[in-house]
Specification:
Blueprint lengths: L6 H12 L8 H12 L4 H11 L3 H10 L11 E6 L2 H5 L2 H12 L5 E2 L5 E6 L11 E3 L2 E3 L4 H9 L3
Parallel strand pairs: 1-3
Antiparallel strand pairs: 1-4, 2-3, 4-5
Length: 157
């Protein structure tokens, strides 16, 4: 598998860098772009980001390691996040997370054997009024019940 950006993607990187007074400030959207392309940030992918950003690999690794939104190992096609922070916990988030673990047969930051799903327990999704909250990839679901959770997963192809 090639870990180089296409010419079109390199143009996008340059456009992102141009938005900031310091080009290195574009590191997060470029890492996000890389993760969307390759599914996770392997060492080779982070080296490619370092190359196009003209930054030391250690800087890229530091940013990718600090933020949990960047995957440092392969995750499932459908990445499921369940919030268990205070508002979600009070409205059933912990029970929903236990249900998710049982339904998927995996734990925190693990992926199913077929690579279809991965699961992550998260601290806050920023929608406490709609607790409990889940996300599948970048689609968010508020007031989630176990039945809602099952229906959402059943709809994932």
């Amino acid at each position: 598998m090639s870990t180089t950006f296409s010419q079109e993607e390199l143009s996008s990187v340059e456009a992102l860098k141009a938005k900031y007074p310091e080009p290195k400030a574009a590191i997060m959207p470029v890492l996000w772009m890389a993760q969307k392309k390759w599914g996770w940030l392997s060492e080779d992918v982070m080296k490619e980001v370092a190359r196009v950003m003209e930054l030391p690999y250690a800087h890229v690794l530091g940013v990718a390691s600090f933020y949990t939104m960047y995957f440092k190992k392969p995750m499932g096609k459908h990445h499921v996040q369940v919030c268990t922070n205070v508002s979600c916990m009070l409205r059933g988030g912990e029970a929903l997370y236990r249900h998710a673990k049982e339904r998927l047969g995996i734990g925190h930051n693990q992926a199913t054997e077929d690579g279809k799903f991965s699961l992550e327990e998260v601290e806050c999704m920023g929608a406490c009024g709609g607790a409990p909250m889940i996300a599948v990839n970048e689609t968010f679901y508020e007031n989630c019940t176990q039945q809602t959770f099952d229906a959402v997963l059943d709809g994932c192809h």
